[in-house]
From TrEMBL:
Residues 325-456 form the Oxidoreductase molybdopterin-binding domain. GO terms for molecular function: oxidoreductase activity. One of its GO terms (biological process) is respiratory electron transport chain. The keyword Membrane applies. The keyword Protein biosynthesis does not apply. Pfam families: Oxidored_molyb. InterPro entries: Di-haem_cyt_TM, Mopterin_OxRdtase_euk, OxRdtase_Mopterin-bd_dom, OxRdtase_Mopterin-bd_sf. PANTHER family: BLL0505 PROTEIN, PROTEIN-METHIONINE-SULFOXIDE REDUCTASE. It comes from Micromonospora narathiwatensis. The chain crosses the membrane at residues 59-81, 122-142, 163-185, 191-212, 261-279. GO terms for cellular component: membrane. This is Sulfoxide reductase catalytic subunit YedY. It comes from the Bacteria. Residues 1-20 are annotated as: Disordered.
Amino acid sequence: MSAHSTGPAGDSPVRSGGAPLGRPAYGSPRRWWAFLAEHPPPGAATLNRRWRSPLRGPWLTSVYGVVLLVGLPLVFVTGLLDYLAYAPQFGQAFPHDVGWLRLPPFDWPTRPSWLFRLTQGLHVGLGITLIPVVLAKLWSVLPKLFDWPPARSVAQVLERLSLLLLVGGILFEIATGLLDIQYAYLFGFDFYTAHYFGAWVFVAALVTHVALKWRRMRSALRSRPLRRELATGRAATRPERPDPDGLVAVRPGPATMSRRGALALVGGLSVLLAALTVGQHLNGPWRRTALLLPRGRQPGTGPTGFPVNRTAVAAGVDAADTGPGWRLSLRANGRTVTVDRAGLLAMAQHTATLPIACVEGWSTVQTWTGVRLRDLAALVRAGRIGAAHVRSLERTGLFRQATLQANQVLDADSLLALRVNGVDLTLDHGYPARVIVPALPGVHCTKWVAEIEFQGRTDG
């Protein structure tokens, strides 16, 4: 019997299964790729001809890629370090349960005292500074996002999927991060959980994308010397040669800007964003330039005019809670010692100049005076200290209590502060007493302290 037959007059020969000879059988991958290519959505056939910038090409895309390849992993690593600074071993880092993404146990150090100030400042500041580079990179590959068919093989499907996760991941992290530091909680989900897992999704996609594109990126960077491109003006700017990825325009138009100009524009915008955020770390008039960080600006003048994250009104703490009737309870090993503010002032006072850094990225350095936490532990005969649990008068909020590690309790500069810059704390700054610990996240430097419970060591 013949392996194939002829269909009705005028038809092409067909296999016994019904598919025309010379074309892949129905249901095969090649058949699907061909079907997609033959049925583009309206306008797809002419869309690529509309992307006419002669600047687009592997070289410019790779330059932006190198910058992000250096900067974004640093943003990711500092984010992980900040997560560790919240002591997840005590269940007080957010999110609480991260499953197999749990980081190794780690006691956050107290030295250098500016450690958290550095990591959180880099995480937020560098993340903002890189936004123009991210957008420029997306612009350089924009035509590929509309390429049709979207893939021509299974390998390309996997590549496009990683690209989708890469682009979606970075845009999600930027958008939610910016909204969080602006206190614009517009999302109907927990920011901390989404931001943490979103970062891991992005990094996985980034590693995959770099593995797939590393050779082409390296080849593209070698194709055009950077020095030559920086010396080339607009009139001499020419398109790159057609590339396998199709980044070069099919019908490039005249250049309206040189590649040198494009790099200068993106770099200038990044410098501008850096200038509008760096003031969040500088005391005095420079803090007014922190236009992108509302909590990082200078709210007042004088020794207590530095920023606050959460005011007493927002925390539900009023003068009646902190008046003459206020008492601090110290607990350890079943014992309780109660002391008022006058009693604390009568104890040995210690002064330390320490930064306080907020999760939004801003920080400030002030001079604090109060009682060492280790002296309070000795007062209640705590013995060998494993941790200390601090509770606030604050009635609501995620950070109305915090657990401190042993090294944080025992550090010589860890204080229950009563005064700052030579004057009593104000109510917004935690009066009558607040915790100050070197390198500790600001939200764990608990304000309006009501109780400290010292816990002993459980190891041998």
